[in-house]
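Subject: Sanity check before I submit

Could someone independently write out the structure tokens for this chain? I want to compare against mine line by line before I put it in a report. The sequence has 156 residues.
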Amino acid sequence: MKKCLVFLMLAGCGFQPMFANRDTDIYVAPISGINGIDLRNSLNAKFGGQHDSDALYTLSVSLAEPVTQYKALERTGDATWQQVSLSASFELMRGDEKIASGREVAAESYTFVRYLVAANASYNNAVRNIINVLADKISVRAITSAADYEKSRTEE
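---
Independent answer below. Compare away.
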């Protein structure tokens, strides 16, 4: 019952989900490195598919190399947990006009074990999760900035 009431209240106020049935015309410029390819693919998925370079908006992203830190040590000095973090700087352009820019950071801890295959799998899963978080953060900022820009142009 409460869910129906909330739905009816939101329906009457003109609320629209930001990502609902929206194909945002944003071209994501190539991002260097293997992680950059994954980030670009994730961003394109958030924007409704890959767009051509003549799209209305262009998103340029610079992805830093992963940084790893030890988080837990045993008495022997062996590491048991590590944290990997990635940072990405981005710039959203509409033609020659900069609409938005910023920097996003994401990090995740993972189990570091002595077995090479397991340690690599933990690290790779952590990096994959971080890339998805970065794609979420950057896409929300880009879509919001583009919507705000379009709204300000229609108000003029």
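---
OP: Matches mine. For the report I'm noting this point. The chain has a mean pLDDT of 85.
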